[in-house]
Amino acid sequence: MASLFETEPSRLELEIDAICAQLGLNEIARKKGLMVLEDHVRSIHLSATNHQIDNCAQMLKGFSLHLDTGPNGSVRPFYVPCSCLKQWNEHNAYIKKYVMHHFPNQGRKAAVASLQESLMPEAIKGVYLYGDPGTGKTTLTIAFANEIAKRGKSVAHVLVQELVAMLKASFGDENAEKAGDVTDRLREVDLLVLDDIGGETNGE
Predict the structure, then answer these.
(1) If DSSP codes are grouped into helix, strand and coil, which group holds residue 120?
(2) Which stretch, 35-44, 108-117, 147-156, has highest mean pLDDT?
(3) Do residues 99 and 109 lie in contact, with contact meaning Cβ atoms separated by under 8 Å?
(4) pLDDT 10s digits, 78-126
(5) Euclidean distance between CA atoms 5 and 16, whole angstroms
(6) Phi, psi of 149 (to 5 degrees)
(7) What is the C-alpha separation between 29 and 173, in angstroms, rounded?
């Protein structure tokens, strides 16, 4: 989508003007949040295209960047499911009818009880799943994240190994600001899933 706005820069400006008017942003807030505003416009256009989740070009695959106003009228980014993720969820809705027979019954009940507890308002904010490879940790976190997203909450699912690699690559170069922008956005989501913690050390 970058080529679209390179050939039609005025279109990007017009869309940013409309967003600022909708959010009630003044010129100072516009200048400070210009990078996020541009990313938001591109994200909206990406979400409007007909694509599959496997080739989703969003900054966070499967999630579209939206904006709200924060304290003092500043721009506050958050993420919602991209059109491709919504389509994927609808297509795979039948999976709810599956019974995971390869999970011991006691283990299934314990996993469900743990996830239900974490959904309660009074529950602690963090849940850590650990176990040997192939035991279903990622399957559970994706199912949990989908349930939260269906409740209208913003969700980000991040592979820690890729996040760490991006942060390392940004040290001391022009990508540092963009990396900081990504981490700021991750702090804003309602649910952040960090997948494969510890996997980033395998190649060190």
Answers:
(1) coil
(2) 35-44
(3) no
(4) 888 899 988 887 776 655 555 555 555 556 566 666 666 665 555 556 7
(5) 12
(6) -60, -35
(7) 26
Give the other-Cβ count within 10 Å of 101's Cβ: 8
**Pairwise CA distance, residues 74 & 28, whole Å:** 9
Taking alpha carbons only, the member of 79, 82, 78 closest to residue 52 is 82
CA atoms within 13 A on the CB side of 176: 4
- Cβ neighbors of 16 (< 8 A, separation 6 or more) are 30, 34, 37, 38, 41
Give CA–CA dist 77/69, Å, rounded. 8
**Phi, psi torsion values for 70, nearest 5 degrees:** -100, -160
Helix 105-119 / helix 137-150 crossing angle, nearest 10 deg: 40
| Model confidence pLDDT, tens digit, residues 164-173 | 877 777 776 6
Question: Domain spans of the chain?
Answer: 1-82, 99-204
Burial state string for 166-188 with b = 16 or more CB within 10 A and e = fewer than 16: ebeebeeeeeeeebeebeebbee
Global pTM value: 0.46
Q: Which secondary structure element, helix H or strand E, spans residue 75, and what is its range?
A: strand 75-81
Instruction: Give 173-194 pLDDT, tens digit per residue.
Output: 666 666 677 778 888 888 888 8
Residue-level pLDDT at 141? 83
In the numeric block, the tokens 């649910």 are attached to: 191
pLDDT of residue 132 exceeding 70: yes
